[in-house]
Amino acid sequence: MSKKFGRVHVIVMDSAGIGEAPDANRFFNQKTPDTGSNTIGHISEKVGLEVPNFQKLGLGNITPLKTVAPTDSPKGYTTKLQEVSEGKDTMTGHWEIMGLDITNPFPVYPEGYPEELLVKIEEFSGRKVIREANKPYSGTAVIEDFGPRQMETGELIIYTSADPVLQIAAHEDVIPVDELMKICEYVRSITLVGSQWMVGRIIARPYVGTAGHFERTANRRDFALAPFGKTVLNYLDEAGFPVISVGKIHDIYDGQGINKDMGHNLNDMDGVDRMLKAMTLPDFNEGLLFVNLVDFDAKYGHRRNPEGYRDAIQDLDGRLPEIMEAMREDDLLMITADHGNDPTFVGTDHTREYIPLVTFSKSFKTPKPLPIGHFADISATIAENFGVQKGEIGESFLDELV
């Protein structure tokens, strides 16, 4: 079959959910169910949201938003998508977007990591682990609380969250980045599927500064488990199509199915710059460009900062004309999310929400709203467009895009 679109560009606004999922009552933030969460909706309602370009594309047509009006003539097809998998974390959301159904949630460690695991890390690294930090912790709070001690002792700050992650924070002047990465690689090797302690992601969290003025750096790296099965990324790669990643996409899929990586973002606007650079690559005439913008989640959702989250959405909105101008006539842009993280909600965890889907192509004639679907419909549509196998789940909406 002939392709409807030559290139597909997918942007994940990490955590930008758009209203509680039907099963939100089964997922919790500090013992409070996620019922009532609405990341974009509450930002719009409580601190205002001015996104003229998203509005023209039809963001306000997906669901009522207080400060983003619907439009009678949207430039893009829009809808919201529901998660099938058991989880509300980064890996579950991204893996499902590319066609996997995660039926067993990743284990979490609400009481911190077992002593036996900490001892193994100490034996490998030659450094002690600060036991008091070994629990669910805010990433900024944990370095404020234990950063001064680490600078004196050289111990490791190991902590977790409500997500399936083991995070190791280290001051770059005390534990060099290369050493931290080697430690994280070791921890990854002993926490794989089938191990005594399976962990979804090992995250290196370098920081700099002095007490009271610590700041995490862009040298973060995620060491994720490999996907539990083949995704549409694999099928595209095997068929010879370019599959280009920007931001932490490469880490989330452990590089599986990705044949060119544009590197990690310094921040979300740097991620947009890397995306625009990828769009001009001379050998990128067809295939997939897959982008993650993580600041929405890491800097504003988890820190419960609705004003910062609003500003980040507005910053991306300001770059949309540049992105659309760089698109070819037969390019397709899909902007979505991977879960929610309502900055006005209780706790600091992700929230179980629908995700938005906003699309654009210069070839669109009269776009309209799409039916409510599921995360994996994105990859099913990509798969049908390029004539490759789809994932375990997902239904294509390619025929609707005219």
From TrEMBL:
It is found in: Cytoplasm. Residues 7-389 form the Metalloenzyme domain. Its EC number is 5.4.2.7. It is an enzyme of class 5 (isomerase). InterPro entries: Alkaline_phosphatase_core_sf, DeoB, Metalloenzyme, Phosphopentomutase_DeoB_cap_sf. One of its GO terms (molecular function) is manganese ion binding. Binds 2 manganese ions. Mn(2+) 1 binds at D14, D338, H339. Pathway: Carbohydrate degradation; 2-deoxy-D-ribose 1-phosphate degradation; D-glyceraldehyde 3-phosphate and acetaldehyde from 2-deoxy-alpha-D-ribose 1-phosphate: step 1/2. GO terms for cellular component: cytosol. Keywords: Cytoplasm, Isomerase, Manganese, Metal-binding. Its main location: cytoplasm. It catalyses: 2-deoxy-alpha-D-ribose 1-phosphate = 2-deoxy-D-ribose 5-phosphate; alpha-D-ribose 1-phosphate = D-ribose 5-phosphate. HAMAP family: Phosphopentomut. NCBIfam families: deoB (TIGR01696), PRK05362.1 (NF003766). Belongs to the phosphopentomutase family. This is Phosphopentomutase. The lineage of its organism: Bacteria, Bacillati, Bacillota, Bacilli, Lactobacillales.
